[in-house]
Every structure is written in structure tokens, then in C-alpha cells.
Amino acid sequence: MSFTLATWNINSVRLRQALVSRLLQDEAPDVLCLQECKSPVDKIPSEVFHQLGYTHMVARGQKGYNGVAILSRLPIRDVGDRDFAALGHARHVAAQLENGVTIHNVYVPAGGDVPDRTVNDKFGQKLDYLTEMRDWFRQDRPEKAILVGDLNIAPREDDVWNHKQLLKIVSHTPIEVEHLAQTQEAGRWVDITRQDLPEGLLYSWWSYRAKDWDAADKGRRLDHIWATPDIAAAGHSSRILRAARGWEQPSDHAPVFASFDL
How many domains would you assign to the chain? Predict the structure, then answer.
């Protein structure tokens, strides 16, 4: 079984319904995982996606913020969610394909602006979220699984436009990178994007604050596709659809793709 999977922080699935439809029509991934849907599940425009062939959806939502959804042309079944750090947020959902592969769609908290949990509760929540993910993977080590999503951390020096300037900026601080590394190690997750594209600058997010995001190119790789070791070798054809960042009324994230032959 071969399939292509994409992950995209859409920053409001209702506001950007047309962009999701464009991606589904132009790129036709078999599975699309969305984060920051900002919608209750019953308000997600699933009928629009259904008409495009994406007849299956597993989602968790809430009004106005957070929210995760898995759209699929392939049959999937809902296999639950976890409320890491007991935040009460819709930040994780899992679905299983008919071949037994479990897909985890995760939206890690952004962490606010100050990388100090003593003065910024949001940063503490982010670290706690990752710690509970780590502990879960240690206790129940995943197999035949893929984890995707906006993990809100750019771990490598070449995952950001300037490593030294961003060392004290949330998303690239050493403590966040270490927490993400521990989470990855706990599940023995393989970074499929970097398995395919091991060298060079690589970004999936560009701030709205830049007047010309493309020219400035001050990006970060915040969006990830991981797989467990038993299926990691089947992953290939990784890419980031940078062009989507330039679509009309875009998300500040670009979709990340990978294919699997299983």
C-alpha cells in the first residue's frame, strides 16, 4: 500500500476552506492532517472536502482556537486522543489506516513570547506537554506509526534562518530542543523530512510580520513528519510546498509532505 500524507497548520479551516480545497485538488495527498482548525468539529466544512473525494474525517475541535483534523481518501478509524498536560485543548487526535498504520496528528502549544516558565505560563505548558508526550511514548512505545503536526519547535541549526539570533527565541531555545529530542527518542521516532533532505536550510513557517516574507526568508521548520523505525525506511519523497505560503490570505505555515510504501 502506497500513500502520500501532508500536514498543515491551516490557521482556521473555515477561513481558509478554499486553500484546503486547492491543496486537495492540486496536490491530492491521500491523507491531510490539519492543525489550528479553530472550529468545533460540526462546523468544519467537511462536506466540501467530501465532494473532493475526502470522504473520511477524524477530528477534535473547539471554538476559536486549537483543533486538529485528519482528512482522508482512504478508510480510517478513530483511535482516540490524549490531553497532554491536562490543558483541555483539542491538540491531538489519532486515526488508523486499514493497513494498521496509526497516524498521530499533534499541535504542540506555541509557548508564548518569553522562554521562561516562571514568568510565562504558556512556556511551562509547552514544556509540560512535551514531557507528557515523552512519558507516554516511554510507557507505550509506538509501532507502525506516523506522527505529524505543528510541533512548534525548529530543532536543528539549519531549521532556522539564523541559529545564533534565535537561541533565545521561543521555538529554538535549547530547553525546547532538548524536550523535543527526548520526546523523539522516547518513541524512537525518525524524522522523515530530514531522512530525505538531510542537509541545508529548510523552513515550513514564515512570520506574518515580514512585509515580504519570501524576500526576507526568515523561516523556521516547525512542522514535522516522523515515523517509527519499523516503517521509517518506507518513507520517501519529502517536500515542503513553499508556494502555499504565498497564496491569497495564506496560513503562515506551508504544507509538509511525505510518501510511504507499505
Answer: 1
